[in-house]
Amino acid sequence: MRQIKNITLASLAGVATLASAGTTHAAAFGPFSVGVGVLRATNSVLQNQTGASNATSYLTIQRCSGVIETPVFVAAGASCTATTADYQIIMDVLSPTSTRVTIVATSATCDIRYVRFGTPNSRCAYDMTNPNPGTVGSGAGANPVAVGLIGAWTANVRFDNAVNRIGAASMGDLYSRMTVNFSSCFDVGDLCQFTVDTDIIN
């Protein structure tokens, strides 16, 4: 964990360097989008998420070569981390309304096209700001906000597989799957870090 924190801090320090250089190839965090997808019914929505609950947002990674991978999150306290030979993905619960997501390339063989969080059995849901009030128990929600970007791509985030409380229609604010798409390969030295609201669904 110390290694990734050092990598992340060093990468974040590089953000200011990139910005001051005025490069035309700087990373960008594009607009997010939503879609209904496959509805996910739940009995309840809770605000006491942990590293273990966020770890159920099971990962699917597509490489630029087309290869699909499914690294496993390991939970520890308020965090969960998936580590491979050339990238790490971390979810840190910062507060009941904020989780920080970090995707960082750790070697020259990293070539990610997208990172998908969530399967039909996930207990982690992503809560958007609007509509508010939305799904009962979900709170006000928060749209994704970039906090650290290094690379030469645009990252677009899509939320789908809308969540509905059993016996009620989906309100359009809560989703059980999140996909981070990169416009070009996410590779060595790259960092994508943003915050999003996560809730527990049962």
Give an overview in words.
- Helix content is 12%, strand content 46%.
- The strands form two sheets. Strands 1, 2, 3, 4, 5, 6, 11, 12, 14, 15 and 17 form an eleven-stranded mixed beta sheet that branches. It has a six-stranded antiparallel beta sheet with strand order 7-8-9-10-16-13.
- It has one domain (2-201).
- The longest helix is centred in the first third of the chain and has 20 residues, at 2-21.
- The protein is built from two helices and 17 strands.
- With 202 residues, it is mainly β.
- The model is unreliable at 1-24 (pLDDT under 50).
Task: Give the CA-based shape.
Answer: globular
Order of helices and strands: HEEEEHEEEEEEEEEEEEE
Biggest sheet architecture: 11 strands, mixed
Percentage beta strand: over 45%
Give the total of domains: 1
Class from secondary-structure proportions: mainly beta
Please tally the helical runs, counting DSSP H or I stretches of 4 or more residues: 2
Q: What would the average pLDDT be, to the nearest integer?
A: 89
**Number of extended strands:** 17
Q: From the alpha-carbon coordinates, what is the Rg to the nearest angstrom?
A: 16 Å
Helix content: 10-25%
Cα(first) to Cα(last) distance is 29 Å
Poorly predicted sequence stretches spanning 5 or more consecutive residues: 1-24
